[in-house]
Amino acid sequence: MRIIFAGTPVFAATALDALLAAHFEIILVLTQPDRPAGRGMKMQASPVKLLAQQHALQLLQPETLKSPDIQAQLKTLAPDVMVVAAYGLLLPEAVLHIPRHGCINIHASLLPRWRGAAPIQRAILAGDQETGISIMQMDQGLDTGAIILQHAVTITPRDTSATLHDKLAQLGGKSIAEALTLLDRGALQSTQQNEAGACYASKIRKNEAEIDWGQDAAHIDRMIRAFNPGPGACTHLQGDLIKLWQAKIVKTISGQAGEILAAGETGMIVACGQDALRIEILQKAGGKKLSAAQFLAGHDIRPGACFAVAAQ
Q1: What does the pLDDT look like over 182-197, one tens digit per residue?
Q2: Is 90 annotated as a binding residue?
Q3: Which runs of consecutive H residues, i.e. helices, occur in 77-189?
Q4: Residue 264's pLDDT band (boundaries 50, 70, 90)?
Q5: Which of 66, 115, 241, 249 has the largest CB neighbor count within 10 A?
């Protein structure tokens, strides 16, 4: 089976690696052009490009798939299927029809729940107890195509977007290999999505990460986990921007929202609208991530001080 693979970040590279390990024939890899990244803003290749080069796969990095020349190149390859995983470029309708079996997408949610750009973060923010991988036949809609197969994973109370991403990336690789095996056997079936259960996972906006301590502790805990590793749930303390990376809910303790009720080796206990949070790992702007004990050793923070939404 002749496969074109389209993807860009680590999530996609994990899937490509799984297909290579299963000895599927990858005739072409599409990934986004190199972009400037890091403090030095140096041009960096995507994880998918690096993996493709490692395996000496044919590679293209078009700015768009709307180009007639690019579409002609894809047609010339006569692919059986295109696998798409977090590619980041729109697939025009003409491209969807180039492969004999169309284009198949690896999506990090149990569709129709959390269509869109940020399904992992939105699932944690919403307090979902499970999510998963959907292998979907692509159409012109936004994650609206027929479902080929789905596999679920539990979202634990300690999962962050980083840990959940890694679980789903591994599951995505196994799932697409399973789907392509069924396709090769002519045993692939699909089911239309139930529109009644659809919801949209909009892209995370930076201002969403600013903590309102009037919210209950469970909500703020979900924010901290959902915005880890980025953009980082943030607040202010004594005029400094602080990012929070790990916390635990402390039940039945209350006080003024944002007030530090205790500060010691086991963390800082901060009052919320309901219950409290024990802050365990935090980071001052421009500094390193520190345990609460390390942070307190270098800062004169005492009970009665208050975190705030904005610098005072």
Answers
A1: 999 988 899 999 999 9
A2: no
A3: 93-96, 119-125, 161-184
A4: confident
A5: 115
